[in-house]
Design brief:
Number of strands: 8
CATH topology of one domain: Alpha-Beta Plaits
CATH superfamily of one domain: RRM (RNA recognition motif) domain
CATH architecture of one domain: 2-Layer Sandwich
Radius of gyration: 24 Å
CATH class of one domain: Alpha Beta
Helix content: 10-25%
Order of helices and strands: HEEHEHEHEEEE
Number of helices: 4
Length: 140
């Protein structure tokens, strides 16, 4: 987009670090780019907990359970209760009082004239202590 940069104002170009900034002595110095650490932009998880929780489970049953302090998540097929407990603590800052895990078998489905099978997946139902809540459905 270098061709269209000439139509931007100088302030816009300085904000995008495309134009050198003038110093007090009148010398033009290339603008410095500020580095933002990934820990400040998103919550940093330990390496072993990155892929444990795949997504929150958004269903009617999960919504009714959330009102009782139980939250449902789709988790990795190799995840254990301890992994899910530590991942919830790292992501939301709340230590669950209990974690129940279920393996949901994939259904046999038909695609036209051929039979297929949905993938088998795991879900975790996390119970929080009384009075604790988390905002699971924020970005969903």
């Amino acid at each position: 987009m270098g061709i269209l940069d000439r139509f931007k104002s100088k302030k816009e170009q300085e904000l995008t670090n495309a134009v050198p900034v003038e110093t007090k002595e009148g010398k033009k110095v290339p603008a410095k780019k500020e580095k933002v650490s990934p820990a400040k932009t998103a919550k940093a998880l330990p390496a072993n907990l990155v892929n444990v929780i795949v997504s929150p489970l958004v269903t009617e049953k999960a919504a009714t359970l959330a009102s009782q302090g139980q939250y449902s998540f789709v988790v990795n097929s190799g995840a254990t209760r301890v992994d899910v407990r530590e991942a919830v603590k790292a992501m939301y800052g709340v230590l669950p009082s209990s974690v129940n895990i279920q393996r949901v078998r994939g259904k046999v489905v038909r695609f036209g004239g051929r039979e297929g099978m949905r993938s088998t997946w795991k879900k975790a139902i996390v119970t929080l202590p009384k009075g604790k809540t988390i905002d699971v459905y924020e970005g969903v």
